[in-house]
Amino acid sequence: MVKKKSEAKLEVKSENQPKFIMIGMEYCDTCEEQKELLAKELKSGEIKYVDIDGPDGTEWDKNYDIDSTPTFMKFNPKTGKYRKVAKFERPDGTYFFR
Known about the structure:
alpha+beta
């Protein structure tokens, strides 16, 4: 059985992991808007921001095949892994989870 990329790698065994990872990029207007909207959660550490072009971002992209930004990953404390949970998109100027 072949593992899906979303099930592979980046296992984490720590209770102090952020609940969500937001993967974005510096030149992504939507990412910057989301960072402003989620400023409280980013500051508290509930959400960690990872720049796809940075060293951590390269690892996330390699393991999870990030195809658009922003992409959100959710931590599962039972498995110690992250999985893709949502993407914000802006058709007609609105945002939504899919």
